[in-house]
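Severity: low
Component: inverse-folding endpoint
Summary: output formatting inconsistent between runs
Steps to reproduce: submit the following structure tokens with default settings.
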């Protein structure tokens, strides 16, 4: 009896077969509805200046979910997070610990670009982050990697310095999802002397993922 036949018999008997998270069917309808809602969002003034929304990209049941701040110019043009120089660096960063870009899920705190790439204001964050919360709930990652101060402050509900948040395993949300904080790639482009510290954060991320996989 093959797996499909076994599942059919079990279903006929009213038996719920156990499946690992990676084997469960993804809620595509939920993803489609959320992306459609984001693309039509007019809840804050940023919809007036955007070219398009930047929803997120990657594997929808990824072990690692990376969260940045907000779209920049190139992201606003292409509709995908982290596609400029900072995106190229992010891709290299995750490759350094054995991941391809397609292996992770990448999203931002905001789904629209703030004018002139300014920091998001408090109203924009409070208005937009319900979308991010839903994305995290859908992905159910084993670990979150917050890149940059804005993402770290929102996810951890803190105003502590990024330096004080690094090299620690934090927890996010009701599911107590492990969370690690590191530098934003755009910051590293301006401050290449901190790339070594960022690499140590990535190695910490790699170890934490291995630990999460073993539990």
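Observed output (run 2 of 3):
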């Amino acid at each position: 009896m093959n797996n499909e036949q076994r599942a059919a018999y079990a279903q006929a008997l009213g038996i719920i077969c156990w499946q690992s998270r990676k084997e469960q069917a993804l809620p595509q309808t939920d993803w489609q509805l959320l992306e459609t809602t984001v693309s039509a969002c007019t809840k804050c003034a940023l919809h007036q200046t955007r070219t398009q929304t930047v929803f997120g990209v990657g594997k929808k049941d990824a072990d690692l979910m990376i969260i940045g701040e907000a779209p920049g110019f190139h992201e606003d043009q292409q509709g995908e997070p982290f596609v400029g120089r900072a995106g190229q660096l992010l891709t290299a960063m995750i490759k350094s610990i054995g991941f391809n870009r397609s292996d992770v899920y990448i999203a931002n705190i905001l789904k629209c670009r703030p004018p002139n790439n300014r920091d998001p204001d408090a109203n924009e964050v409070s208005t937009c982050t319900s979308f991010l919360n839903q994305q995290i709930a859908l992905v159910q990652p084993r670990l979150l990697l917050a890149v940059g101060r804005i993402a770290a402050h929102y996810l951890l509900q803190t105003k502590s310095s990024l330096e004080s948040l690094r090299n620690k395993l934090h927890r996010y949300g009701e599911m107590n999802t492990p969370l690690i904080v590191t530098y934003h790639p755009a910051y590293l482009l301006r401050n290449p002397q901190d790339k070594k510290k960022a690499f140590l954060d990535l190695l910490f991320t790699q170890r934490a993922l291995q630990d999460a996989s073993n539990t």
